[in-house]
Amino acid sequence: MGAFAAGGIAAEMAKFEKLARGSEASCKKAVKAGGQLLAEKLSAAAPVRTGALAASIKAGAVKYSAADGYYCEVAPTGTNAEGENLAKIGNILEYGRSNMPARPWFVPTVDSAVEEVNSAIRETFQAAQGKD
């Protein structure tokens, strides 16, 4: 009869931990790539008067939450030469005011870029994992 030996579980657990660390790094890299692509798309679509709004659109740091997983915020940052918040200016342009019509640019750009951004995330993750 064959013998059953239970041993080496520590080595197997170490392999799993190494895979998990590699997956975490791959996820962060992939999300950052998707965020940067979306930032480029939004910068190209932003209404241009001075160019400050388009130049201010950045992909933030990759963060993690149990509810949402890995993510990065892509938004206008900083202020213009007059000290006005560029995110607020982008919002006003997107939705308008009582005396100014809306000029949607943010939501339509995000909607049209979803597939391309998801594809970039998937490709970057697979490349980081060493898969085709």
Q: What's the helix count?
A: 4
Work out the number of β strands: 4
- Terminal CA distance reads 44 Å
Radius of gyration: 22 Å
Order of helices and strands: HHEEEEHH
Strand order of the largest sheet: 1-4
Structure description:
The chain is mainly alpha-helical. The chain has one domain (16-127). It contains four helices and four strands, in the order H-H-E-E-E-E-H-H. The chain has helices at residues 9-45, 52-56, 86-95, 106-129, and strands at 57-59, 63-65, 69-71, 74-76. Strands 1-4 form a two-stranded antiparallel ribbon. It has a two-stranded antiparallel ribbon with strand order 2-3. Strand 2 (63-65) and strand 3 (69-71) form a beta hairpin. The longest helix has 37 residues, at 9-45.
Quick description:
By secondary structure, this protein is mainly alpha-helical.
List the keywords:
single chain; 132 residues; mainly alpha; two-stranded antiparallel sheet; 4 helices; 58% helix; 9% strand; elongated
